[in-house]
Write a structure and sequence with these properties.
Layout (H helix, E strand, L loop, with lengths): L2 H14 L2 H17 L3 H20 L15 H19 L4 H17 L6 H20 L10 H17 L8 H20 L8 H7 L16 H12 L2 H10 L3 H14 L5 H8 L4 H10 L5 H7 L6 H14 L5 H6 L6 H14 L5 H10 L3 H14 L2 H8 L7 H10 L1
Helix pairs in contact: 2-3, 2-4, 3-4, 5-7, 5-8, 6-7, 6-8, 10-11, 10-12, 11-12, 12-14, 13-14, 14-16, 15-16, 16-18, 18-20, 19-20, 20-21, 20-22, 21-22
Length: 416
């Protein structure tokens, strides 16, 4: 090809990629989109848009004047037109059987993942039955739920989804059928969302539905706060489950404090999970309750609370709790606190070893009794040796009957 031909070709290409030409091509695409009647027509429009977008990327269109805020940007305007036409294209597509199935899958999850109230469950049943009737009518089949159980209802919706998916519905030939199925599926989802679920109830309504207040006489239900009155009655009856329910339900510092006090007095194993969860926030009262409960599983958490020189009050409470739990795994970490800088922590550690009652603690306690500067700590060590009560522990104590500290003397005399 001659140079003249090359120049002519370049000029033709520039004309094809000009803003006016691209704009005209978009006009043609928009006209074709308005006239499209089938999915194949829409596919053709999409192919045209892809080609126009490719040419737009390759076009060397003039840049807007940066100093002129009102200057036109041909490239940006054309890109906006392409995006708008793509949105219109997607709006004209379908509906498809896959759209129906997607809504039904969401409805299944809603049914199985939701806790329904007594008033809400009949509405769920009615919504599912209505949709199954719609599918049966549209696809000339028979669908029904085997029972009112949520899992059975969800299975029936899944069966309907499989029928829709297996019907090979064509988006052109079966457009009205698909649209009707989609509308029915969306109505099902709307009805499910309108049905009353457990989370729609207030805390008091939830507890009332579970019979939490049934323990109160009718006149006592009016006393404020009724929740706390119920907890006191349950404590007297020794019923732990409603008390734990109150702990997990009420977002109230007052209720939490009083419920934890009740659990501390009771020390029930059934409350372990709820209390252990709160103890991990390093709150004192839950740690005390764990000591009362005496579950060895708590020791790993509690050992972390006595590591280092942090909160002295928490460490003392934790050492006491570890002693009450009585796990042999606690002997070493507790004994290490005999060297704490805080004399109160050292004293609590000595007493904890006495509660643990492990003979491995005799020698460390003997060292404390001999060398600690604080008489309070030495007295705790003497008490601990008496609690351990082996011959070796008592022999150590017998040498302190004339100790300078009265409490140490008293413990030594018990040993003698």
């Amino acid at each position: 090809m001659s140079n003249g031909d090359d120049e002519a070709a370049d000029e033709a290409e520039e004309t094809a990629l000009s803003a006016d030409t691209l704009d005209q091509r978009l006009d043609d695409a928009e006209e074709a989109l308005d006239a499209a009647e089938t999915e194949a027509d829409l596919d053709d429009v999409e192919a045209d848009l892809n080609e126009i977008e490719s040419d737009l990327d390759a076009a060397d269109l003039p840049e807007p004047d940066e100093d002129d805020e009102d200057a036109e940007d041909p490239a940006a305007e054309l890109e906006d037109r392409v995006a708008d036409l793509r949105d219109q294209l997607e709006d004209q597509r379908g509906p498809y059987a896959d759209d129906v199935v997607a809504v039904l899958e969401e409805a299944q999850s809603t049914i199985t993942d939701t806790r329904w109230t007594e008033d809400g469950r009949p509405d769920v049943v009615a919504a599912v039955e209505s949709y199954l009737d719609s599918v049966s009518d549209e696809l000339d089949t028979e669908l029904s739920a085997e029972s009112d159980d949520p899992d059975e209802l969800a299975d029936a919706v899944d069966q309907a989804a499989q029928v829709v998916e297996g019907s090979a519905l064509d988006p052109d030939e079966d457009e009205e059928t698909i649209a009707a199925l989609l509308e029915a599926a969306e109505t099902l989802q709307d009805d499910l969302e309108a049905a009353e679920e457990w989370d729609d109830l207030t805390v008091r309504e939830q507890l009332d539905a579970e019979g939490f207040y049934d323990v109160l006489e009718s006149e006592n239900r009016k006393d404020f706060p009724a929740e706390w009155n119920a907890v006191k009655v349950y404590e007297e009856l020794g019923e732990v489950e409603p008390i734990v329910k109150a702990l997990e339900t009420f977002d109230s510092d007052f209720m939490e404090e009083n419920v934890l006090d009740a659990l501390w007095r009771m020390g029930p194993e059934e409350a372990y999970d709820a209390v252990h969860q709160r103890a991990q926030k390093r709150n004192v009262r839950p740690v005390q309750i764990l000591g009362k409960i005496g579950n060895d599983d708590a020791t790993e958490t509690l050992h972390d609370f006595i590591d280092g020189d942090g909160d002295a009050a928490l460490q003392k409470v934790t050492l006491r709790a570890l002693g009450e739990i009585g796990s042999e795994t606690s002997v070493e970490p507790v004994a290490q606190r005999l060297d704490a800088d805080n004399y109160e922590i050292r004293s609590a550690a000595a007493r904890s070893l006495g509660l643990l009652g492990d003979t491995r603690a005799v020698e460390p306690l003997a060292d404390v009794l001999d060398g600690d500067e604080a008489n309070e700590v030495r007295a705790s060590a003497a008490w601990a040796l008496n609690q351990i009560g082996t011959r070796r522990a008592l022999d150590v104590l017998e040498g302190y009957t004339d100790d300078r500290a009265y409490l140490v003397q008293s413990e030594a005399e018990k040993a003698v």
